[in-house]
Amino acid sequence: MSLEETERTVREYVDVLLGGGDFASFFADDVLWTTMETGDQIHGREAVRDFILGLHTQYFDASPELVNVTLADGVAALEAVFAGTHIAEFAGIPATRAAVRLPYAMSYDISDGKIRALRAYFPITALVQQLRDAAAVHA
User: Fold this and answer.
1) Which of 17, 27, 56, 139 could form an SS bridge with 31, CB 3.0 to 4.6 Å?
2) CATH code of the domain covering residue 116
């Protein structure tokens, strides 16, 4: 896959994701998500889509704030900030309505115009701590 094809795929994916469209159409059927901090993996287009939607719309009212995108032939890295409000139980912590902001990075493997793997360098421990701190304040 050429650099141009990689760039087109990633730019279109990000535009659709931020615009609330069908971003899962950019995933291969057997796409693999890995949360690098925990090693947790999610397999398959629908499961990965549902996980991303859950983070952005079910547990949090959130959206990524794009910081930087780096591209090479068949791979991409994205830096962003996860910014949102905690609206439902997450990691055993009831909704706090707390605002959260966390920097994170994503790495993508791309071929044939599809995202085949996503590796999330997302600070789950820091997110949970922010929620615990907010819950303690409201207790």
Assistant:
1) 27
2) 3.10.450.50
